[in-house]
# Entry
Amino acid sequence: MRLAITGAAGFIGSNFVYYMAEKHPDYDFILIDKLTYAASERGYSWENLQMFEEDYRFRFVTADINDKEAMYDALYMCNAVVNFAAESHVGRAMVNGERHILSNDLGAVTVAEVACAYSSRFLHVSTDEVYGDILEGSFREDIQFNPRNRYAGSKAAAEMNLRPFIYPPHNLDLVITRSANNFGKFQSQEKFVHVIAECIAKNRPIPIHGEGKEIREWLWVEDNCAAIDLILHEGKKGEAYNISSHQEVSNLDLAKLAVKHFGGKIKFVPNRPGNDRRYSIDTRKIDRLGWKPRATGKNFEKVMLECMGYYIQKYQKV
Ligand code: NAD
# Structure
């Protein structure tokens, strides 16, 4: 199989490359990324994937997914493409959301058009944020979208604009994943787990927006990679799949967990406008495919603390 991965230098993309390289040693990989500030932990580079640079199975393509000519070149003879490429920062979208529309919506459509031309399977990575927040219960895949920030709006728009491709004359072999909040190594510096670790390492208080009561479902990135691999191979054309391990933790409790184990202090700062209160998704559909997350229950805490420790150590070395 020749597999193209867009947004490969980013957080989940990098982890997915490592996962697939080990799981499928017979695959060839085309790694595509524009190398924005979010590429690799320190931005603008392929640093996360340096170890594959000399490996003949990997081709690196530095390009914008909106560059259709570059996509025709990159995706040539690919059996499948997994589209992670996106402007993924919610805070940045609130200030300037235009780039989010360009990369997340129009970019996804460009990749879909090229995947159609080559009859490649197209796995589009979407998000649970398309559903909006929910105070009780969990969203199933067939519920109406209610995006509540401009990042989520651009991801919801992409899903709407990709859907017509499954019908004639395009007949795109499309599958979609909508995952919960990921944590793990290779995340850029602006995301919460990374922020917590940096504050602890540099003896700064951890900023908590508002009262820190906002609840997120935390999914270990390696569990997400296993789910994406499963859906890439077993997912039904035209279907979307929620991915979550149901580890609900408020932002304050996550910071407290870090302080309890590594020391440090918490500082309350004004809340972000439009900070969604709780996300929760129903995963019965992917459960039926046989997916089982590993970072749950007691193991969730262990993996989360290992992840924080990984970032703290990095900062202490600087
Ligand atoms: P990230 O910001 O770490 O990485 C995104 C990568 O895409 C970066 O390397 C960036 O350089 C690249 N990119 C951006 N625009 C591009 C463009 N126009 N052309 C080519 N490359 C471009 O994001 P992430 O956290 O790894 O998220 C990956 C995907 O997963 C995104 O689509 C995001 O919406 C989705 N997602 C993320 C989470 C999460 O918790 N991180 C949760 C649910 C869904």
In short: The longest strand covers residues 121-127. The two ends are 40 Å apart (CA to CA). The first helix runs from residue 11 to 23. The chain has ten helices and twelve strands.
